[in-house]
Amino acid sequence: MPDASRAFDDSFLLGGELPVRRLGFGTAQLTGPGYWGPRGTRQDAVAVLRQAVERGVTLIDTADNYGPELAEELVAEALHPYRDGPVIATKGGVVRTSDSAWHIAGRPEQLRAMCEASLRRLRTERIDLYQLHRLDPDVPLAEQLGALDALRQEGKIRFIGLDTLTAGQLQEALSLTGIASVQNRFNLLDRSSDAVLRLCETHGLAFLPWFPLANGALTGESAAALAGIAERHGATRGQIALAWLLHRSPVLCPTPGTGSPVHLAENLGAAAVRLSTEDMSRLEALAPA
Q1: Alpha helix ranges (H) inside 11-131
Q2: Phi and psi angles of residue 70, each rounded to the nearest 5 degrees, phi first
Protein backbone atom coordinates (compact mmCIF):
# COMPACT_ATOMS: atom_id res chain seq x y z
CA MET A 1 0.00 0.00 0.00
CA PRO A 2 1.35 3.48 -0.78
CA ASP A 3 2.34 5.80 2.05
CA ALA A 4 -0.97 7.53 2.70
CA SER A 5 0.70 10.26 4.76
CA ARG A 6 2.00 11.84 1.56
CA ALA A 7 -0.09 13.76 -0.96
CA PHE A 8 -1.07 11.57 -3.90
CA ASP A 9 -0.55 12.50 -7.54
CA ASP A 10 -3.93 13.54 -8.92
CA SER A 11 -2.90 13.02 -12.55
CA PHE A 12 -2.28 9.97 -14.74
CA LEU A 13 -0.74 9.50 -18.18
CA LEU A 14 -3.27 7.47 -20.15
CA GLY A 15 -1.44 5.16 -22.52
CA GLY A 16 1.77 6.62 -21.11
CA GLU A 17 1.26 9.88 -23.00
CA LEU A 18 -2.15 11.51 -22.53
CA PRO A 19 -2.50 13.36 -19.19
CA VAL A 20 -5.80 13.20 -17.34
CA ARG A 21 -6.88 14.12 -13.85
CA ARG A 22 -7.56 10.90 -11.98
CA LEU A 23 -10.98 11.92 -10.67
CA GLY A 24 -13.20 11.97 -13.73
CA PHE A 25 -16.90 12.02 -14.56
CA GLY A 26 -19.12 9.13 -15.68
CA THR A 27 -22.27 9.70 -17.72
CA ALA A 28 -24.40 6.67 -16.79
CA GLN A 29 -26.36 8.67 -14.21
CA LEU A 30 -27.43 11.14 -16.88
CA THR A 31 -29.76 8.42 -18.16
CA GLY A 32 -32.79 6.83 -16.54
CA PRO A 33 -33.19 3.69 -14.41
CA GLY A 34 -31.37 0.77 -15.98
CA TYR A 35 -29.38 3.31 -18.00
CA TRP A 36 -32.45 3.55 -20.23
CA GLY A 37 -33.99 6.75 -21.56
CA PRO A 38 -33.44 10.22 -20.10
CA ARG A 39 -33.12 11.24 -16.47
CA GLY A 40 -34.35 14.78 -15.93
CA THR A 41 -34.09 17.34 -18.70
CA ARG A 42 -31.56 17.41 -21.49
CA GLN A 43 -30.68 20.97 -20.50
CA ASP A 44 -29.79 19.89 -16.95
CA ALA A 45 -27.63 17.00 -18.20
CA VAL A 46 -25.72 19.29 -20.54
CA ALA A 47 -25.23 21.79 -17.72
CA VAL A 48 -23.75 19.18 -15.37
CA LEU A 49 -21.33 17.96 -18.04
CA ARG A 50 -20.14 21.51 -18.66
CA GLN A 51 -19.80 22.16 -14.94
CA ALA A 52 -17.68 19.05 -14.54
CA VAL A 53 -15.21 20.29 -17.14
CA GLU A 54 -15.28 23.84 -15.75
CA ARG A 55 -14.34 22.38 -12.36
CA GLY A 56 -11.27 20.69 -13.82
CA VAL A 57 -12.47 17.25 -14.91
CA THR A 58 -10.49 16.03 -17.92
CA LEU A 59 -11.71 12.41 -18.23
CA ILE A 60 -15.30 11.83 -19.37
CA ASP A 61 -16.43 8.20 -19.41
CA THR A 62 -19.49 7.20 -21.43
CA ALA A 63 -20.85 4.27 -23.48
CA ASP A 64 -22.94 3.78 -26.59
CA ASN A 65 -25.56 1.78 -24.67
CA TYR A 66 -26.22 4.39 -21.97
CA GLY A 67 -29.61 5.59 -23.09
CA PRO A 68 -28.89 3.87 -25.46
CA GLU A 69 -27.01 6.46 -27.54
CA LEU A 70 -28.28 9.31 -25.38
CA ALA A 71 -25.22 9.74 -23.16
CA GLU A 72 -22.85 10.08 -26.11
CA GLU A 73 -25.19 12.62 -27.70
CA LEU A 74 -25.24 14.62 -24.47
CA VAL A 75 -21.44 14.61 -24.29
CA ALA A 76 -21.23 16.03 -27.81
CA GLU A 77 -23.95 18.60 -27.19
CA ALA A 78 -22.26 19.81 -24.03
CA LEU A 79 -18.57 19.65 -24.89
CA HIS A 80 -18.04 19.65 -28.67
CA PRO A 81 -15.78 20.97 -30.12
CA TYR A 82 -13.40 19.29 -27.70
CA ARG A 83 -10.20 21.06 -28.82
CA ASP A 84 -7.57 20.45 -26.12
CA GLY A 85 -10.22 19.90 -23.47
CA PRO A 86 -11.62 16.68 -22.04
CA VAL A 87 -10.44 13.19 -22.90
CA ILE A 88 -13.48 11.22 -24.06
CA ALA A 89 -13.72 7.51 -23.28
CA THR A 90 -16.60 5.45 -24.60
CA LYS A 91 -17.50 1.78 -24.84
CA GLY A 92 -18.94 -0.66 -27.37
CA GLY A 93 -19.64 -4.35 -27.60
CA VAL A 94 -23.03 -4.54 -25.88
CA VAL A 95 -26.45 -4.06 -27.48
CA ARG A 96 -29.45 -2.99 -25.39
CA THR A 97 -33.03 -3.93 -26.22
CA SER A 98 -34.70 -2.83 -22.96
CA ASP A 99 -33.84 -1.41 -19.56
CA SER A 100 -32.89 -4.89 -18.37
CA ALA A 101 -31.66 -6.62 -21.53
CA TRP A 102 -27.94 -6.55 -22.37
CA HIS A 103 -26.60 -8.55 -25.31
CA ILE A 104 -22.87 -9.03 -25.82
CA ALA A 105 -21.88 -8.38 -29.43
CA GLY A 106 -18.19 -8.81 -30.10
CA ARG A 107 -17.92 -9.89 -33.70
CA PRO A 108 -15.45 -7.70 -35.61
CA GLU A 109 -18.10 -6.28 -37.95
CA GLN A 110 -20.30 -5.40 -34.95
CA LEU A 111 -17.47 -3.65 -33.12
CA ARG A 112 -16.55 -1.65 -36.20
CA ALA A 113 -20.16 -0.55 -36.75
CA MET A 114 -20.53 0.42 -33.08
CA CYS A 115 -17.31 2.42 -33.05
CA GLU A 116 -18.21 4.29 -36.22
CA ALA A 117 -21.66 5.09 -34.81
CA SER A 118 -20.01 6.44 -31.64
CA LEU A 119 -17.72 8.61 -33.75
CA ARG A 120 -20.78 10.14 -35.41
CA ARG A 121 -22.66 10.73 -32.15
CA LEU A 122 -19.61 12.20 -30.43
CA ARG A 123 -18.90 14.35 -33.52
CA THR A 124 -15.24 13.45 -33.59
CA GLU A 125 -12.81 11.81 -36.00
CA ARG A 126 -10.99 9.91 -33.26
CA ILE A 127 -12.10 8.52 -29.89
CA ASP A 128 -9.45 8.97 -27.22
CA LEU A 129 -10.22 5.72 -25.39
CA TYR A 130 -12.45 3.03 -26.87
CA GLN A 131 -13.29 0.27 -24.41
CA LEU A 132 -14.66 -3.19 -25.12
CA HIS A 133 -17.64 -3.20 -22.77
CA ARG A 134 -17.67 -6.98 -22.34
CA LEU A 135 -15.58 -9.81 -23.76
CA ASP A 136 -17.67 -11.94 -26.09
CA PRO A 137 -17.27 -15.59 -25.07
CA ASP A 138 -18.34 -16.72 -28.55
CA VAL A 139 -15.64 -14.77 -30.39
CA PRO A 140 -11.88 -15.38 -29.98
CA LEU A 141 -10.28 -12.54 -28.02
CA ALA A 142 -7.72 -12.11 -30.79
CA GLU A 143 -10.53 -11.33 -33.24
CA GLN A 144 -12.19 -8.82 -30.93
CA LEU A 145 -8.92 -7.02 -30.22
CA GLY A 146 -7.94 -7.33 -33.87
CA ALA A 147 -11.00 -5.31 -34.83
CA LEU A 148 -10.08 -2.59 -32.36
CA ASP A 149 -6.45 -2.67 -33.49
CA ALA A 150 -7.58 -2.10 -37.07
CA LEU A 151 -9.65 0.90 -35.97
CA ARG A 152 -6.65 2.24 -34.07
CA GLN A 153 -4.39 1.85 -37.11
CA GLU A 154 -6.98 3.74 -39.16
CA GLY A 155 -6.82 6.60 -36.66
CA LYS A 156 -10.40 6.17 -35.45
CA ILE A 157 -9.41 5.37 -31.87
CA ARG A 158 -6.30 6.36 -29.94
CA PHE A 159 -6.22 3.83 -27.11
CA ILE A 160 -7.91 0.50 -26.37
CA GLY A 161 -9.51 -0.37 -23.03
CA LEU A 162 -11.28 -3.43 -21.63
CA ASP A 163 -14.22 -3.73 -19.24
CA THR A 164 -14.94 -6.54 -16.75
CA LEU A 165 -12.30 -9.22 -17.11
CA THR A 166 -10.10 -11.49 -15.03
CA ALA A 167 -6.38 -11.16 -14.46
CA GLY A 168 -5.82 -14.10 -16.80
CA GLN A 169 -7.87 -12.48 -19.55
CA LEU A 170 -5.95 -9.24 -19.11
CA GLN A 171 -2.64 -11.08 -19.42
CA GLU A 172 -3.88 -12.70 -22.63
CA ALA A 173 -5.02 -9.34 -24.01
CA LEU A 174 -1.66 -7.77 -23.22
CA SER A 175 0.04 -10.54 -25.19
CA LEU A 176 -2.08 -9.62 -28.23
CA THR A 177 -1.98 -5.82 -28.36
CA GLY A 178 -1.43 -2.61 -26.43
CA ILE A 179 -4.02 -1.95 -23.73
CA ALA A 180 -4.34 1.44 -22.00
CA SER A 181 -7.09 0.86 -19.44
CA VAL A 182 -9.32 -1.57 -17.58
CA GLN A 183 -12.76 -1.05 -16.08
CA ASN A 184 -13.76 -3.51 -13.37
CA ARG A 185 -15.91 -3.16 -10.28
CA PHE A 186 -13.74 -1.99 -7.41
CA ASN A 187 -14.63 0.06 -4.36
CA LEU A 188 -14.24 0.29 -0.61
CA LEU A 189 -16.48 -2.75 -0.07
CA ASP A 190 -15.52 -4.84 -3.13
CA ARG A 191 -11.85 -5.67 -3.73
CA SER A 192 -12.48 -8.79 -5.83
CA SER A 193 -10.50 -7.31 -8.74
CA ASP A 194 -7.36 -6.70 -6.69
CA ALA A 195 -5.32 -9.09 -8.89
CA VAL A 196 -6.39 -7.08 -11.94
CA LEU A 197 -5.41 -3.87 -10.17
CA ARG A 198 -1.95 -5.24 -9.45
CA LEU A 199 -1.51 -6.11 -13.13
CA CYS A 200 -2.57 -2.60 -14.08
CA GLU A 201 0.05 -1.19 -11.71
CA THR A 202 2.72 -3.46 -13.21
CA HIS A 203 1.90 -2.46 -16.79
CA GLY A 204 1.00 1.20 -16.20
CA LEU A 205 -2.66 0.79 -17.17
CA ALA A 206 -5.39 3.07 -15.93
CA PHE A 207 -7.98 1.27 -13.79
CA LEU A 208 -11.38 2.99 -14.01
CA PRO A 209 -13.39 1.40 -11.19
CA TRP A 210 -17.10 1.15 -11.82
CA PHE A 211 -19.47 1.56 -8.89
CA PRO A 212 -16.72 3.55 -7.13
CA LEU A 213 -19.23 4.54 -4.46
CA ALA A 214 -20.36 0.91 -4.01
CA ASN A 215 -23.66 1.70 -5.74
CA GLY A 216 -25.13 3.26 -2.60
CA ALA A 217 -24.02 0.44 -0.27
CA LEU A 218 -21.84 2.55 2.06
CA THR A 219 -24.17 1.88 4.96
CA GLY A 220 -24.66 -0.88 7.49
CA GLU A 221 -21.55 -2.08 9.26
CA SER A 222 -19.32 0.24 7.24
CA ALA A 223 -21.30 3.35 8.20
CA ALA A 224 -19.83 3.92 11.66
CA ALA A 225 -16.19 3.70 10.60
CA LEU A 226 -16.83 5.81 7.53
CA ALA A 227 -18.79 8.39 9.50
CA GLY A 228 -16.02 8.75 12.07
CA ILE A 229 -13.31 9.30 9.45
CA ALA A 230 -15.58 11.61 7.46
CA GLU A 231 -16.32 13.72 10.53
CA ARG A 232 -12.62 14.17 11.30
CA HIS A 233 -12.01 15.40 7.76
CA GLY A 234 -15.15 17.50 7.49
CA ALA A 235 -16.17 15.31 4.56
CA THR A 236 -19.01 13.03 3.51
CA ARG A 237 -18.87 9.24 3.45
CA GLY A 238 -18.89 9.32 -0.32
CA GLN A 239 -15.91 11.66 -0.39
CA ILE A 240 -13.99 9.34 1.92
CA ALA A 241 -14.79 6.36 -0.33
CA LEU A 242 -13.50 8.24 -3.38
CA ALA A 243 -10.45 9.55 -1.50
CA TRP A 244 -9.66 5.96 -0.47
CA LEU A 245 -9.54 4.97 -4.16
CA LEU A 246 -7.24 7.89 -4.99
CA HIS A 247 -4.90 6.94 -2.14
CA ARG A 248 -5.16 3.17 -2.70
CA SER A 249 -3.29 3.07 -6.01
CA PRO A 250 -1.81 5.65 -8.39
CA VAL A 251 -3.51 3.93 -11.36
CA LEU A 252 -7.06 4.10 -9.97
CA CYS A 253 -9.07 6.72 -11.88
CA PRO A 254 -12.63 6.77 -10.53
CA THR A 255 -15.33 8.37 -12.69
CA PRO A 256 -18.36 8.84 -10.42
CA GLY A 257 -21.41 10.18 -12.17
CA THR A 258 -24.39 12.27 -11.19
CA GLY A 259 -27.05 14.50 -12.67
CA SER A 260 -26.91 16.87 -9.68
CA PRO A 261 -24.62 19.92 -9.52
CA VAL A 262 -24.54 19.60 -5.72
CA HIS A 263 -23.50 15.95 -5.87
CA LEU A 264 -20.95 16.78 -8.57
CA ALA A 265 -19.31 19.33 -6.28
CA GLU A 266 -19.32 16.80 -3.44
CA ASN A 267 -17.69 14.10 -5.57
CA LEU A 268 -14.99 16.40 -6.91
CA GLY A 269 -14.29 17.62 -3.39
CA ALA A 270 -12.90 14.16 -2.62
CA ALA A 271 -9.67 15.11 -4.40
CA ALA A 272 -8.89 17.55 -1.58
CA VAL A 273 -9.17 14.92 1.18
CA ARG A 274 -5.84 13.61 2.50
CA LEU A 275 -6.17 10.36 4.38
CA SER A 276 -3.66 9.33 7.04
CA THR A 277 -2.03 5.94 7.30
CA GLU A 278 -4.36 5.21 10.22
CA ASP A 279 -7.38 6.22 8.13
CA MET A 280 -6.29 3.89 5.36
CA SER A 281 -5.80 1.00 7.75
CA ARG A 282 -9.30 1.41 9.12
CA LEU A 283 -10.78 1.67 5.67
CA GLU A 284 -8.87 -1.37 4.42
CA ALA A 285 -10.47 -3.38 7.22
CA LEU A 286 -13.99 -2.66 5.95
CA ALA A 287 -13.78 -5.05 3.01
CA PRO A 288 -15.60 -8.36 3.56
CA ALA A 289 -13.39 -11.44 3.72
Answers
A1: 42-54, 70-79, 108-122
A2: -60, -45
CA 205 to chain CA centroid, nearest Å: 13
Cis check: omega of the bond before 81, within 30 degrees of 0: yes
Measuring CA to CA, how many Å separate 173 from each of 90, 109, 234? 19, 19, 43
Instruction: Give the model confidence (pLDDT) of 33-56 as tens digits.
Output: 999 999 999 999 999 999 999 999
Listed in sequence order, the residues at least 6 apart from 6 whose beta carbon sits closer than 8 Å to its beta carbon are: none
**Which positions are annotated as active-site residues?**
66
Nearest to 61, CA basis, from 137, 161, 136: 161
pTM of the model: 0.95
Task: Please write the tens of the pLDDT for every residue from 116-130.
Answer: 999 999 999 999 999
CA atoms in the 13 A half-sphere facing the CB of 263: 13
